[in-house]
Design brief:
By secondary structure, this protein is of the alpha+beta class. It has helices spanning about 10-30, 35-45, 170-180, 190-195, 205-210, and strands spanning about 85-95, 105-110, 120, 140-150, 155-165. A hairpin with a 7-residue loop joins β2 and β3. The radius of gyration is 32 Å and the shape is flat.
């Protein structure tokens, strides 16, 4: 949710966009204009002038344009809070270009969630025999955390954290989902367990039942 893609903005595009808005407004005004000058006065069209014979009306101040002709734009300047856990479940693959220097150092991590970018992970994080037997890990789920994503790169950089197991099995898939969403599923500490009733079997007292709403 907090992966932000910033589009390139060109001043030429802005100029063309403004011309398009003015042309659209010109066409609409022409439709509203009446045939004679007297009827034109009765129409009460203001804020529009003709520069020379044959030209359509031009709007000198963009603030006079109706809202339906305006495209509001903005630019992200800062991320206040990172919502995403930066963790993803996916598969590791060897890079396609075996002759590149990157092939000797990194593998490609492909997330199951296609909203997350593909990630370069160090071969040191991969299993020892991954380079010689990559097919053995083609259906193995891994957890990867994104640590960086440079502006001039199509892929992020990350670290493999854990091997979950075979894809399609309930436990690995469940653990991957919980990790992606930042859910703490570790065992309760002894301090937490001490808060539970120690004298077993435990039952709700009649007094508590009388003043509580039973939702069992």
């Amino acid at each position: 949710p907090d992966v932000i893609i910033e589009a390139q903005f060109d001043d030429n595009d802005a100029e063309h966009g403004q011309d398009h808005l003015q042309d659209t407004l010109t066409d609409d005004i022409k439709k509203l204009s009446l045939d004679t000058g007297e009827k034109g006065k009765a129409a009460g069209v203001t804020g529009v002038h003709r520069t020379k014979q044959g030209d359509g009306p031009k709007v000198s101040d963009p603030r006079l344009l109706p809202d339906e002709f305006l495209q509001r734009t903005a630019k992200v300047v800062y991320i206040l809070e990172k919502k995403h856990s930066r963790a993803a479940t996916g598969f590791i693959r060897l890079l396609a270009d075996r002759n590149s220097e990157l092939f000797k150092r990194c593998a490609m991590f492909s997330p199951v969630d296609h909203r997350v970018p593909r990630v370069y992970v160090p071969l040191a994080d991969c299993p020892p025999d991954f380079v010689t037997k990559p097919e053995a890990y083609s259906q193995m789920l891994f957890i990867c955390r994104i640590v960086d994503w440079k502006e001039d790169s199509n892929f992020a950089s990350g670290q493999l954290c854990k091997s979950l197991g075979q894809a399609g099995e309930i436990e690995p898939e469940s653990e991957g989902i919980l990790t992606e969403y930042g859910v703490d599923f570790s065992d309760f500490s002894p301090e937490v367990l001490e808060c539970l009733p120690q004298n077993l079997p435990w039952a709700i007292s009649p007094g508590e039942l009388a003043k509580r709403r039973d939702l069992r």
